[in-house]
Every structure is written in structure tokens, then in C-alpha cells.
Amino acid sequence: MPESRESFTEQPYIAPTGVHAAAVARIWADVLDLDRVGGMDSFFDFAGTSINAVVVCGRVGDELGVQVAPEAIFERDVLNDFIASLNNRETAAS
């Protein structure tokens, strides 16, 4: 059973925003074994590791068709920022 995000942070839940928001939030929550991840949540607040980052980026590529290197999570560790970087990659690739 996934852990409650509230056991890691006192920050209120804010729904993620962006084109791929729901899918990426679900992927982060699955990989980090959480019930949900909010748009302003940091990957590292939930004990995210480099191995978790590799898994997240692989799933983002598989499920959304957006290729992203694991370093992107280290550069943009807040979910909405990470999603924005994905949206920017898609726009640049078009």
C-alpha cells in the first residue's frame, strides 16, 4: 500500500499542471510508492534517488513518448517544473 505524501511533507497538496500532469504525477507516485504527488512537491522530499530518477524517466519515455535524461529531475526536482521541461522538449521537437 502506498505511503501518504503527508508523512513526508507538511506542504499542502496542489494539483499538478501541464499537458502531461496527471500521467507524470502518477508515475512519480508509483515509483516513489506514494498515494499522490502534488505539483509543488520536490522529488527529493520523498527520498527520491538517482535510481528512482532513471525509472521515472524510462517510464515517461515509454508512456508519453518524451525522451528525458534522469539529470532532468536533478535540475527540475519540483513536479510542475519537471512537467514544464517535458512540455518545452515536446514543443522544441515539433
Automatic annotation (TrEMBL):
Domain Carrier stretches: 15-90
Matching InterPro entries: ACP-like_sf (IPR036736), PP-bd_ACP (IPR009081)
Top-level taxonomic group: Bacteria
Record-given protein name: Phosphopantetheine-binding protein
Source organism per UniProt: Paractinoplanes pyxinae
